[in-house]
């Protein structure tokens, strides 16, 4: 007794465009990450003096998030 897969429901054009844009951003992020890993594999880890502490990166990211999202009352 075989079951046929359910028919897919097409997305609205704007939703399809949004999904494609998200896929492109995700792919670009993955490419940058892979590039960083390949650089580490080829050249080793950077010197500690050349790195940004994670606390500074976290605070900068949180500051970006605050500007993107309005404060909750």
Report on this structure.
It is built from 2 helices and no strands. It has 73 residues and is mainly α. The longest helix is centred in the middle third of the chain and has 31 residues, at 13-43. It is flat, with a radius of gyration of 21 Å. The relative contact order is 0.05. The model has no long low-confidence stretch (mean pLDDT 91).
Biggest sheet descriptor: none
Radius of gyration: 21 Å
User: What sequence of helices (H) and strands (E) makes up the elements?
Assistant: HH
Looking at how many chains there are and whether they match, the oligomeric state comes to single chain
Shape: flat
- Distance from first to last alpha carbon: 56 Å
Question: DSSP helix count?
Answer: 2
How much strand? under 5%
Helix percentage range: 55-70%
Alpha-beta content class = mainly alpha
In short:
The chain has 73 residues and is mainly alpha-helical. It has helices spanning 13-43, 54-68.
Features:
73 residues; mainly alpha
SSE inventory with pairings:
Blueprint: H1 13-43, H2 54-68
